[in-house]
Amino acid sequence: MANDDPAADAVIGAVRGARQVPPESDPTGPVSVVIVDDHDLFREGVAAILRHDPRMAVVGQGSSSPDAVSLTAALDPDVLLLDVELPGGSARATVARIHRSSPRTRIVILTMHRDTLLKDELLAAGAFAYLTKATPTAGLVQTMLFAGAVARGVRAVPEASARPARQRASILSPREQEVLHLLAQARSNRDIADAMSIAEGTVKRHTSSIYAKLGARSRMEAVRKAFLLGIFARDDL
Fold first, then answer.
1. Is residue 40 domain-shared with residue 147, that is, in the same domain?
2. Rounded to whole angstroms, what are the CA distances from 52 to 21, 77, 138, 141, 212?
3. How far apart are CA 92 and CA 72, in angstroms?
4. Which tens digits make up the pLDDT trace of 186-208?
5. 4-aspartylphosphate occurs at which residues (predicted)?
6. Which residue has the higher pLDDT, 95 or 229?
7. Stretch 165-188: mean pLDDT, rounded?
8. pLDDT for 51-69, tens place per residue?
């Protein structure tokens, strides 16, 4: 591994392998991100997109499954952006290992494969979200920020509330709690509808009710407030 520096950033795709900088120490600072993809040009392009947003900081890059494991362990990023086809290990095994060893880090899959079975397999192994490389830039940025907010919320939960869990959760109906948990996993309305066997319009109505009860204007804000209120616990997501 080599240290990251501005000169290295200027040479797109020149060096294959993991590069890192010290993790962001301020918990209120930018969402810290590690990117692992074995296509240098694509990885550097995504890094440039994320660096352009001041709310995010790319703290490390790698090109293999072992890089993903070691960088996540060393840097404790809020979010790991992970490709599926990497040398050195299967995607499922890599996700499962990182989820066990670095449970705070949210793993966002970014792949060219539109494969429902693969998606379900990786989400079951511990991935937070599954995106294809056809995802618009705005969608990628929003998912990364959302994942980062959840990671930060998990970190803050133990001191968040003293009320009994049943009393805190009673703010939302059981159905609304279920919808909110799926929203926190960056699921689309259609995915949530399929998972709960309800209509997409019903999902939207539940979401509107959740926003109203929590005083939120977005998914990210609803999840953050759910953590602060203690509706979500550390191991819920």
1. yes
2. 17, 18, 12, 10, 33
3. 16
4. 788 998 999 899 999 999 999 99
5. 83
6. 95
7. 75
8. 999 999 999 999 999 999 9
User: Does residue 3 sit within a domain?
Assistant: no
Please say whether the beta carbons of 158 and 127 come within 8 A.
no
Q: What is the tally of structural domains in the chain? A: 2
The C-alpha atoms of residue 37 and residue 31 are separated, in whole angstroms, by 19
For residues 211 and 142, state if they share a domain.
no
Q: What single letter denotes the amino acid at residue 192?
A: I
Query: CA-to-CA distance for 39 and 206, rounded, in angstroms?
Result: 41
Whose CA is closest to 56, among 145, 150, 142? 145
Domain check: are 136 and 220 in the same one?
no
**Centroid of chain to Cα 144:** 6
Assigned token pair, 168: 């805190």
pTM of the shown model:
0.64
Same domain? 128 vs 179: no
Residues 135, 214 share a domain: no
